[in-house]
Design brief:
Shape: elongated
Helix content: 55-70%
Largest sheet: 5 strands, mixed
Structural class: alpha/beta
Strand content: 5-15%
Order of helices and strands: HHHHHHHHHHHHHHHHHEHEHEEHEHEEHH
Number of helices: 23
Strand order of the largest sheet: 2-1-5-7-6
Radius of gyration: 26 Å
Number of strands: 7
Distance between the termini: 50 Å
Length: 555
């Protein structure tokens, strides 16, 4: 690589400064929305959290026992873990962290904050290579306030960790192209494996080398042995996992593959990237690409960074447009750091025009600063509009139920609400029940049939009387109704409420807690007379059918 105007120490300092700046932005977002105190309410948040809690519990008390048997038993108690639908790498990290930090939503959101800010370090480090501190911090600031990143601070998801790993893998790939050492090949393979085992979207890293070679023409790297050995080792890890879990992960596909999906997804994904940085980003990226290509022999490192960023963007768009999982904004998180780097490189190139003779050259710096401000505008607007994250009060309800069922006998609680609301309650119960004495049943599973993504739905019972009979058969002692905006979550929610109101229901309301941050309430019902938990019926209801498929494949 060519020499840069700054030493490695200065580049690392710029990366650290960019990271700290992003963390401070995240703290401001959490303070404004109180997301770190609100618990989980998103559809997938509680699953990601509980998967980490499950790993910690397994390592703490059940290792080296049968992990699959423990997973099935844990799922029956708390039916929100989902390792298999998502890969295990991030959950393994969380499980280890929970040996140090308490397994609570607050601790999880703290980890999420620190992870979400990591790509900003890469953005600042790359921009410092040729632009110095000012450009590095400007890039970190623009990245840190994009709507996707701000949303990442609010939700406990996997996309933030994936973005951090993929941008790191891109940088290692550039280093490998410059010198084909075993250490760099194995590091890239490790990051590839880690990305794929964090989330299926990590497969985009397969396309990064391909696009990079097409852009730069550096095909000579294919003659080196280390890359092939490294990828073979990675395949030995990732292929068996995806073979074991393919039947589960396929449930998450919402579309059919084909041209119609690919074209629609590509348009939506480009719109997402543009919406995060405004319309000025596209011409700035074009300027960066054109300028860097023309100067590629004079500034080869800058060209390599530009080519790497473009490769990461194209790889993300290719995977998300070809694999018909879903069209979701946060799936573009891996591409966003690269988009910011190219756009800010474009701003730097605008400044270079100011040195050329001409009447309007003094306007160029003003235009460059204005472009940066315009790119930051969508994120600033997002921050201004952001409101308090809804708090379902499940952290208050769970201790009430745990205290009311201290006899040591099995106890069953049923929760009804949206998928996120049910998961939020399940998470709060699980972290207070390390000995697995309680069982939590989801009303969405007891009273209805639906697939993993909720795209199909059918009531199991036709009357509220039948719904009450199902409660009595299980021996449910507590029912928790979570009503966002005071509306029933599903058709069975109204049916359940009617069942609780029947004269012989044996349930009475013992608490009603208004939500914080949004209209709604969480109601708790308790049986008047003691009931006996029908654990066998709960196990019959709760055993995940896909577990048998994995067990058979392992055998």
């Amino acid at each position: 690589m060519q020499n840069t105007p700054y030493s490695n120490r200065h580049l690392y300092s710029a990366a650290l400064a960019g990271y700290v700046l992003a963390v401070l932005i995240g703290i401001a977002v959490l303070w404004k929305t109180q997301a770190h105190l609100a618990g989980f309410s998103g559809a997938d948040e509680s699953s990601h959290f509980l998967n980490g809690v499950f790993v910690n519990e397994y390592l703490r008390a059940h290792f080296p026992g049968n992990a699959m048997a423990f997973a099935v038993d844990y799922y029956i108690h708390y039916p929100k873990i989902s390792i298999g639908h998502w890969p295990p790498a991030y959950y393994g990290l969380l499980g280890l962290i929970f040996f140090i930090l308490p397994a609570t939503p607050v601790a999880a959101m703290t980890v999420n904050l620190l992870v979400s800010a990591l790509p900003a370090a890469a953005v600042a480090g790359m921009l410092a290579t040729f632009g110095g501190w000012r450009l590095a911090l400007a890039g970190a600031l623009i990245y840190g306030v994009t709507p996707l990143v701000l949303e990442g601070y609010l939700l406990f998801m996997l996309d933030q960790a994936l973005a951090a790993v993929t941008i790191a893998a891109m940088l290692v790939w550039i280093a490998y192209v410059n010198r084909q050492t075993w250490a760099r090949a194995l590091t890239f393979a490790f990051l590839f494996t880690l990305a794929v085992l964090i989330k299926g979207n990590g497969w985009l890293l397969v396309f990064v080398p391909l696009f990079y070679l097409l852009i730069t023409g550096a095909w000579r790297v294919l003659a080196a042995l280390p890359l092939y050995v490294a990828f073979a080792l990675a395949a030995l890890v990732v292929v068996p996992w995806y073979w074991l879990t393919s039947g589960i992960s396929a449930d998450g596909f919402n579309y059919q593959a084909g041209f119609a999906y690919a074209w629609g997804a590509l348009q939506a994904n480009l719109h997402t990237l543009g919406g995060n940085l405004s319309v000025v980003a596209a011409p700035l990226i074009g300027i960066a690409l054109l300028h860097s290509h023309r100067q590629r022999h004079l500034t080869p490192l800058q060209w390599q960074i530009v080519a790497g960023c473009l490769s990461l963007i194209l790889a993300t768009l290719a995977l998300q447009s070809l694999v018909p999982v879903d069209i979701v904004d946060r799936y573009l998180a891996p591409a966003l750091p690269a988009v910011v780097v190219l756009a800010v490189f474009g701003i730097q190139n605008l400044f270079s025009f100011a040195r050329a003779p001409g009447t309007y050259r003094r306007l160029v710096p003003v235009m460059a600063v204005a472009a940066g401000m315009v790119m930051a505008a969508p994120g600033i607007a997002f921050f201004v509009r952001s409101h308090q994250k809804v708090d379902l009060r499940t952290d208050v309800v769970a201790p009430l139920i745990s205290a009311a069922s201290h006899s040591g006998e099995p106890h069953i609680a049923l929760v009804d609400g949206t998928a996120g609301a049910e998961g939020g309650f399940i998470a709060e119960m699980a972290i207070r029940d390390s000995h697995l004495q309680h069982y939590t049943v989801r009303a969405s599973k007891l009273f209805a049939d639906s697939n993993f993504m909720g795209s199909s739905y059918r009531l199991k019972f036709s009357t509220s009387r039948q719904a009450l009979t199902a409660l009595q058969r299980l021996g449910v002692a507590h029912v928790v109704l979570i009503r966002l905006n005071d509306h029933d979550a599903f058709a069975h929610s109204a049916q359940l409420a009617q069942a609780l109101a029947l004269p012989d229901s044996n349930f009475r309301k013992v608490a009603s807690l208004p939500h914080l941050g949004r209209t709604g309430s969480t109601e708790v019902y308790q049986t008047v007379l003691p009931v006996r938990a029908n654990v066998a019926a709960v196990r019959e209801l709760g055993t995940p059918s896909k577990a048998n498929v994995i067990t058979q494949r392992m055998d």
